[in-house]
Write a structure and sequence with these properties.
By secondary structure, the protein is mainly beta. Helices cover about 5% and strands about 30% of the residues. It is globular, with a radius of gyration of 23 Å. It starts with 10 loop residues before the first strand and ends in a 44-residue tail after the last strand.
Length: about 200
């Protein structure tokens, strides 16, 4: 499918997602400095395949695609859509989900449960949230597609952190008495054991 002459993207604004789990949030600062960084603010939302109505999101994606390619697009199969199968991704928490990655060149607004402005540090991989997104059409390498631009992120609750961690309690620690103790003793190898320059060896 060739791009129309002087192709201009179409938009549908103010689409509210269901509540899902956040993955790989880059909200306070853009994603930079990594191998596949694109310099954008972004977050991925994991939505269960069962029990969540994805109809409004799919309808918006299809409708905006039909605005750009009215004679070509009939179903979601006729363009590159933003919905991805979590069962095909080798990452914790993705199985049994549909996920969408939403991006923006500008810092999205972040709010709490009562719609109060909050800091981006509130959002972490595994927390619950919903997004307000804009559906936008694009052409890339001659292929038509639709993406979701990230406008607003609303914190909806805490959840088990993706990637582990965050669940330890200080109750499992003993108090440390510094009197008469040498901190270096804690790092000394056991008698007869060979020392190593790296714990990865």
């Amino acid at each position: 499918m060739a791009a129309p002459a002087n192709f201009k993207p179409e938009f549908i604004n103010n689409i509210v997602t269901p509540i899902g789990r956040v993955s790989f949030p880059h909200l306070s600062k853009p994603d930079e400095g990594r191998q596949y960084s694109d310099g954008k603010f972004k977050a991925t939302l994991l939505l269960p395949k069962k029990g969540v109505d994805l109809g409004p999101l799919k309808t918006a994606a299809l409708k905006v695609a039909q605005k750009s390619w009215p004679s070509k697009v009939k179903t979601l199969d006729d363009f590159v859509h933003p919905f991805r199968d979590g069962d095909l991704k080798d990452a914790e928490g993705y199985k049994g989900s549909v996920f969408i990655t939403c991006k923006s060149k500008r810092r999205p607004r972040m709010v709490g449960k009562m719609k109060e402005d909050v800091d981006g540090d509130m959002f972490y991989g595994g927390c619950k949230a919903r997004f307000i997104v804009t559906a936008m059409t694009y052409m890339q390498a001659g292929k038509p597609g639709v993406t979701f631009l990230l406008d607003v992120v609303q914190f909806a609750g805490d959840g088990e952190k993706l990637g582990g961690g965050g669940g330890a309690s200080v109750d499992s620690l003993d108090e440390i008495n510094d009197e008469g103790e040498n901190p270096g003793d804690y790092a000394a190898p056991a008698e007869g054991a060979a020392s190593s320059s790296s714990f990865l060896d």
